[in-house]
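Final report, closing paragraph on structural work. Over the funding period we assembled a curated collection of sequence-structure pairs, and we close with a single example.
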Amino acid sequence: MSKKRLDKIDSDMLTPFVQKALDNPSARITEWDYQIVKGDGTLSKRLVCRFFGQAATQKREVSWSIFLKVPNPTQTHLDAWHREPFQREPILYQSGILKDLPGGIFAPCCFGVVEHSDDEPWMWLEDVSGKPALEWPLERFRVAAYHFGMMQGAFMADVPLPDYPWLDTSGWLKPKLANPTRRVPNILDKFRIHPLTRELWNSQIGERLRWLWDNKETFFSALSKMPGTLCHGDFNYTNLFARRLPNGEDQTVVIDWQYSGVRQIGEDMAGFIADSSIIPVRRKAAEPKEFTEMMIEAYLAGLRDAGWKGDLRVVRFACLTTLAFPWSFNLLAGLNGNVLNHQITEDNRRDMDQKLNEYIQTQEFMFGLAEEARTLLEVIDH
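Its predicted structure, as stored:
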C-alpha cells in the first residue's frame, strides 16, 4: 500500500464511519473531501488526514468530519523502543481501554480500526472539537492536571486494567531516562573550558551540575520503584484540548496515545510542566516556580479525590525527580546548541550572554527541585 493509498477511499468506505460520527445509521454522504494534516498520502509512513463533507439525514443535510490516522510501519524503526509504539495506538483502541477512561480525561472516539496490508492499521477517529492547549488560560492547565490525576489515581485505586503483557511498558523507563544523558559528558567538558562558562564550572553552579550527574543513577533507580498506572507518554500542548459539554461538564481530551502503557508514575506531569514552562518551545504558560507548584498540587488533589490512598510524597518525588534530572540534561543540551558550540564574536556576544543568563536562571530553579527530591528520597526510602 505504498503508492496512492488514499485512492482506494470512496464514499462507500467512509459511510459506516461517518454514520457512527453522526450517530445516525441512515446518514448518506452527499459530498466529501480530505486534507492531509501530517505525512504523505503516497508513502508507507505515518499519515494523519482529515475527511469532511455533507451527509443527508432523514431531517436535513448536516456537516461531518472525521480523522484517518495511519501509524508508521514497524519496520521503519530499527530499535525496539521506537519501533513498538507506532503499533500500540490501534491495539489500545481495539482493546477498549481508551473508550471509558476514568476522571475527566477522554480519548477521541474510535469509529473503527481496519487492518490493511503492508503493516498499516487504519484508525478512523473523532474530529475533536474544543480549545487547543496553546490557547488555554492558566486556570485550564490546573484543571487538566487535576483531571489527569483523577484518571491515574483511579487506575491505582480501584479501576482495573487488563493484564495484557503488551500493556506493561515499565521497561521503557530506563532507555527513556538514558536518552538525554548520552551527550552530557561531552557537554560538561565544553562547559568546563568555554570562555563564557569556565568560571561557572568552579562556582556553585558547576558543583551542583556535577552532583546531578554523579547521583543520577540513585534517583533513576528510585524512579523505577514508583507505583505504576496508565501513562500517556506524550502529554504536551499539541495533544490536549479542553471541551465543555452542554451540561457544563469540563473534559480534557487527549490525542495521540501511541506511547501509552502501564509504567512508573511521574513522567507525564513532569513532561507537561517542562514543555509548558521550563523549556517552552511553543508557548510559556507561566513562570516555572508558580506553574510547577500549581500543576503538582492539582495533580496530587486529583489522585487523592480518585480514591488513591498511597503516600503523596512518593508521587511528588517522582514528578520532581523526572523534572530535575532528565530535563536538566535537556536544558544543558540547549545550552550546548545556543552557547557552547559557538565561538564568541562581537556580533553574537550579547545574544550568547542573554542565553547563558536564561539558562542559569532556569537551572537554578531545577537545582531547587533536585534538592527537594533529595530530601523526599531520604524520607520515603525508610
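The longest helix spans residues 349-380. Confidence is low (pLDDT under 50) at residues 76-83. We thank the funder for supporting this effort.
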